[in-house]
Write a structure and sequence with these properties.
Layout: H1 3-12, E1 15-16, E2 19-23, E3 29-33, E4 36-39, E5 47-57, E6 63-74, E7 79-90, E8 95-104, E9 110-112, E10 116-120, E11 123-127, E12 129-134, E13 140-145, E14 149-152
Antiparallel strand pairs: 1-4, 2-3, 3-5, 4-5, 5-6, 6-7, 7-8, 8-9, 8-10, 9-12, 10-11, 11-14, 12-13
Length: 155
């Protein structure tokens, strides 16, 4: 590191390649990683991060990965916000893009902040929002809502 970089890191209290791993109330495993993280500069509680990724492994074996250039983690509320263009990919072949999502660290919950577009094994998708959450029967379900459009592509 150059002297200038060291001084900047000491002033901003940055961490390089931090990671967080935990298990939710439902038994879902969550791992969050970032390239760098540091305190939020606006005085709010939490941590800002860049090159953020979250991997979610549900009890049924389904995996969901989220990747975003920016994000925030709030340990007090157990919530993570990924933003700046989020890519969500499931082990079932669904790939969705949205501007931002909020994800819980203590339970299975991922919600978009707005419009979602993407591809699935059965065609292209568009929706006003997405929500990944338990359905009350112990299963996690990906809900697409508000103006859902599916263009079916037969194989």
């Amino acid at each position: 590191f150059a002297e200038v970089e060291l001084n900047e890191r000491l002033e901003t209290e940055q961490i390089t390649r931090p990671s967080y791993a935990g298990v939710t109330q439902e038994g879902t495993q969550i791992v969050v990683r970032a390239n760098e993280a540091g305190k939020l500069r606006d005085g709010r509680a939490g941590t800002s991060a860049n090159a953020l990724s979250a991997n979610i492994l549900m009890q049924n074996g389904t995996e969901v990965s989220l990747i975003a250039p920016l994000g925030e983690i709030n340990e007090e509320t157990q919530m993570t916000r990924l933003q700046g263009g989020v890519i969500m990919e499931t082990s079932h072949g669904v790939v969705l893009e949205t501007e931002a999502v909020t994800s819980a660290l203590d339970r299975t919950l991922v919600a978009s902040a707005g419009r979602v577009t993407g591809q699935s094994p059965f065609g292209s998708l568009e929706a006003g929002e997405l929500l990944l959450s338990p359905n009350g029967e112990g299963q996690n379900v990906l809900h697409l809502k508000n103006g859902v459009r599916l263009l079916y592509t037969p194989k």
